Fold this sequence. Notes:
Layout: E1 8-12, E2 15-22, E3 25-32, H1 35-51, H2 66-79, H3 85-99, H4 109-120, H5 125-144
Antiparallel strand pairs: 1-2, 2-3
Amino acid sequence: PYTAKSGEKYRLDDFWWIDYRANGRRRFERVSTSKRVAMDRLGKVKAEIREGKFFDKKQTLPSVKFSEFAEIYLENHCKANNRSWKRAALSLKHLKAEFGNKFLHELTIWHAEKYRMKRLKEVKLATVYQEISCLKNMYRKAVEWGKLSSNQLQGLKNPHAKNERLRY
Length: 168
């Protein structure tokens, strides 16, 4: 296949394609069998990008509050799969107290680590471990169910206990 530079049009398999960069990502779009239509489309896309009006159609997801999605997650995942939903409900109660009024896409690793440090002063390490695990799994499910475009908490690490035994 032909590899074009960004901002070009090219023909491949009887169709004209355009190639451009938007929002930091390279995009390819199959336009038409007509070169003129492809040129017009490329001109429109470039103008939208310059004016800041270009929005990717795939990234328009509904904004969901953390507290609303926590309830959906508890009902549709934890209770439905007969997992330890009582433990998840307790974890979500504490997480909702901290993040309940935020939207899912607003929460970052920094917020989660700040929460972890605060909770480590109040409860034991194992409890914080379970709450962070619940939070990470909830975000994985949000991406899987189409409520988020990407998982912002993907790099979040769980606290590790020093469970070494003293042996003689």
